[in-house]
Task: inverse folding
């Protein structure tokens, strides 16, 4: 799938794998940076965060958050608006990780 590039060139293969997974997170669901790394079986939360910071603008970045359910710093307002739009379960400024965490396997039932 061709993504819009932001002038940084082609993402490396690891970044492409991260971005492909992020595109598959269903609306209303989230994964932590660590969840993404664990699902892929490579890298870690910081590596996923770096990928998202460099190339994540063309994918649903608001679905990848910190393990405590909070969005990336500076993106809270836009993230909360998108969660409301998608019906993501959250409390205050945190995603409800018990209800909203996606395991990468099944899509939620409507």
Result:
């Amino acid at each position: 799938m061709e993504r819009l590039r932001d002038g940084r060139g082609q993402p490396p293969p690891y970044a492409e794998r991260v971005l492909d997974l992020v595109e598959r997170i269903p609306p209303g669901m989230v994964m932590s940076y660590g969840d993404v790394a664990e699902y892929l079986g490579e890298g870690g939360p910081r590596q996923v965060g770096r990928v998202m910071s460099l190339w994540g603008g063309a994918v649903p970045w608001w679905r990848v958050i910190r393990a405590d359910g909070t969005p990336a710093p500076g993106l809270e307002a836009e993230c909360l608006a998108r969660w409301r739009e998608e019906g993501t379960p959250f409390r205050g400024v945190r995603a409800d990780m018990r209800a909203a965490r996606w395991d990468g396997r099944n899509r939620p039932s409507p």
